[in-house]
Amino acid sequence: MAKNIKVAAAQLSPIFLDKEKTVKKACAAILEAGENGANLIVFPEAFIAGYPDWVWLIPNSKGADLNELYLKLVENAVSVPDDSTVKLCESAKTAGINVVIGMHERNVETSNASLFNSLLFINDKGTILGKHRKLIPTGGERLIWSQGDGRTLSSYNTSVGKIAGLICWENFMPLARNAIYELGTQILVSPTWDKSPNWIQTMQHVAREGGLFVISTCMALRKNDIPDEYGFKKLYPEDREWINVGNSSIIAPNGKILAGPLEAKEGILYADINLQDIIKAKRMFDVVGHYSRPDVFNFKVNKPNKT
After folding, report:
1. pLDDT computed for residue 4 by the predictor
2. Residue 203: which CATH number?
């Protein structure tokens, strides 16, 4: 078990709806984090190539507007693998760092025209370990993203321990969390769009409940980061500067905030962690160990055979 590890949360703004430029920015951040000694870097939800905040602004009756935005979103989504993933893997290998990055992912296995809200996991050798597709989009997000399934509820053995991910409000789902805990996860990455104080409290609870480290990474996005060509930009209040202030944080198994929250600025948060703190945290409460009561509860994740 690796003891001393440096992890990073990349609270950055994407180049809105521009996959190529956003990937370039991500690669630069990967190299920067590697130079600063980080062993793992986590990017925000839907970082490639931007969170579709218009779902909370434009009513579904505006079909023509939504169609154009969706087209742009799909054109700038990631296929796994593609040229974008090749560049990310090359940067991870060069920097010698594990990478988890949020993205819009095309459903290449069928129509190639629907999208998932996904996380891509890359190890420090530049190898794709796998991906996680968000199980259930929230509210207006359901007009954009398909539903994931149990096949991508996985953890991955890396040079920094066992890593798994839940996206945004998936972290509110007790059974999804339990699935992650049962996998022996040591570092839970939780990319999100939620910037609220309540979210940080949730992350602290999850860290304590699971007895693991949590890296919550949120996108910092200004109104000026959205090009004027996208008409929904005018729907924000005229004096509004920040669409999302971020509030990314890194949290220890005892619920203590180790870094952050970082508010209203771009930046990369760093924290030194020791995986032995996980064992110390589980002495009194191990949710899938001595506290699990398998004689009382049964738990199963359905994993369809379809590939």
Report:
1. 82
2. 3.60.110.10
